[in-house]
Amino acid sequence: MMFNTDKLWEKISVFSDAALIFSMENRRYFTQFPSSDGALLVYGGKALFFTDSRYTEAAAKCIGEDKVIDSSNLYEKLKEIFSVNGVKRIAVENDKLTLAEFDNLKEKLPEFEFVTSSALSTAIEEIRIVKEASEVTKIKAAQKIAEDAFSHILTFIKEGMTEKEISLELDFYMLSHGAEAVSFETIAVAGKNSSMPHGVPGEYKIQKGDFITMDFGATVDGYHSDMTRTVCVGEPSEKQKEVYETVLKAQNAALDVLHDGITGVEADKIARDIIENAGYGKNFGHGLGHGVGVEIHEAPNLSPRASHTLKEGHVVTVEPGIYLPGEFGVRIEDMAIITKDGCINLTNCPKELIIL
Ligand SMILES: [Mn+2]
Q1: Cα of 159 from ligand 1 centre, angstroms
Q2: Last residue of a domain, one of 128, 156, 172
Q3: Which of 64, 96, 114, 290 has its CB surrounded by the most CB atoms within 10 Å?
Q4: Torsion of CA 82, 87, 89, 93, to 10 degrees
């Protein structure tokens, strides 16, 4: 495995002599090496990875012996590399570094100038937002695990079971079937709790007639998946059916219009109009979707305030919902990759209302 920092160097050499990347997700993106500690230095068309002794051996195996440097005396080593290579201006991730970390950098490297604009973070976002085939393969592998977990959970859910038991079973299934981690804290909320879009699974026991909303994903090689399904235990009421069908109609309509060139605002509006026209505009408070990759939430956004235009190779979620406080909620979420003329849905689970 090698660094994939060529595109990044092309972009950053316009405004800096080097970039220092500390955030876990960006380090992993450019090195493929997962670690809780490290710094990636990109300069002069080259890159070096600094990490502590807990990781140096594994990092050398993954990245290459000559590219990995023990990070003890990091700042002395950086100073030396900077002086030898004429590095004066160093770009940092202005959306990732804490103030304390930045103060420390300035204190340790007082003779250098730091580029603290959003230039580096924007350059990284522009690279990460378009997924290469190898990245899509990992996202699909993660999604497959989540789909298998969904099939499994449908046979597992019984009346009297708690939300927590359901979320733990989804996690156990994913982790024991190839997930390196779960994408985020699994949501399984039932009955009245399902009106809380990001409710926390608790001790509530499933009853006949409950909707259960499950929002979950797996990660494979650092790449996330994200899906949501709402199912009913026993017969749904007319209102539950109507709300479910409205969310499904909105979701399918949005998936139908996704393509290279549509904006995040336009995509959101397609789904939002359907929900509004059904009388539930006030009950869909969040945006339609978000990008997915080495982070569970990343660019682009699909929402009334989104600034992105969707492009070929973007991977996004489409997840409208209707939430009726004190009653119930419904959300249906698929992940799709944008193509020239449309999109390919990466989620293969059924969407008609499942009654358990
Ligand atoms: Mn999501």
Answers
A1: 27
A2: 128
A3: 290
A4: -60
